[in-house]
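re: the backbone from monday

yeah here it is again, tokenized this time
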């Protein structure tokens, strides 16, 4: 926010954007939404989210209402919505949405949207943290009843929303796919050297998984898990956490030789 130098004019900085083809509406007590007031063609960027970049620990200190107006953009980076609600804050979740993510902070129409239709996207497209899990009553035929942090793992959603996940979620999907590329031989090598040099054994296996032959331990760990607690255990070389990672890599290897 910035304030003009004279007392007669005030510059209001809006952090979020909503297309002029839609207007926000209030639906107390269930919150707010946005509705098309003109036909919105597929491919139109309908909203962008700004905000203050926060880590999980800072983010947790804000009230639930403000946290609900936020979007996760990386493992430990969340754009916290502005102090007061703006028009661009009012795009609700739906399990059968008409919008998706164009990038980390932009919502795009996935299909033509008719006048009067509410603009919606699926939170599974952008968020993988448990700060915004809820029982869903979107009322669509595809409603999954509960929206949770792990929904991006569902094959049905991955197929339905292909090309409409945020880069952060897409990176997680790609990382899982890469993990299955570990061959039986890779796993045998990892197991053989784990007792003597656990971190080296895991690092080598993960470098193969992700196709990143020079990646640091820190980079690899952020691809393995998005849970801050797990990340800190692995970075501090906690024995149980390392053993669990070994087990996961052993179990999720692909069928290749
Ligand atoms: Zn639903």
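seq for it, each position gets an aa:
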């Amino acid at each position: 926010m910035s304030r003009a130098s004279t007392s007669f004019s005030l510059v209001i900085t809006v952090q979020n954007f909503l297309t002029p083809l839609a207007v926000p509406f209030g639906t107390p007590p269930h919150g707010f939404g946005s509705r098309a007031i003109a036909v919105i063609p597929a491919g139109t960027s309908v909203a962008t989210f700004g905000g203050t970049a926060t880590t999980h620990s800072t983010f947790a200190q804000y009230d639930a209402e403000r946290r609900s107006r936020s979007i996760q953009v990386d493992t430990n980076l969340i754009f916290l919505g502005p102090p007061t609600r703006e028009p661009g804050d009012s795009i609700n979740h739906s399990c059968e949405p008409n919008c998706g993510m164009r990038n980390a902070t932009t919502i795009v129409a996935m299909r033509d949207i008719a006048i009067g239709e509410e603009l919606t996207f699926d939170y599974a497209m952008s968020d993988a943290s448990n700060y915004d899990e809820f029982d869903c009553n979107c009322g669509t035929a595809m409603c999954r009843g509960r929206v949770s942090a792990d929904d991006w793992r569902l094959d049905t959603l991955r197929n339905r929303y292909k090309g409409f996940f945020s880069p952060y979620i897409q990176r997680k999907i790609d990382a899982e796919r890469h993990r299955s590329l570990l061959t039986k031989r890779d796993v045998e090598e990892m197991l053989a050297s784990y007792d003597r040099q656990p971190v080296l054994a895991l690092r080598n296996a993960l470098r193969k998984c992700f196709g990143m032959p020079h990646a640091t331990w820190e980079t690899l760990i952020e691809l393995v898990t998005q849970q801050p607690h797990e990340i800190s255990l692995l970075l501090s070389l906690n024995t149980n956490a390392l053993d669990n990672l070994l087990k996961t890599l052993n179990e999720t290897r692909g069928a290749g030789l």
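The chain has two domains: 17-169, 180-251. The chain has nine helices and 13 strands.
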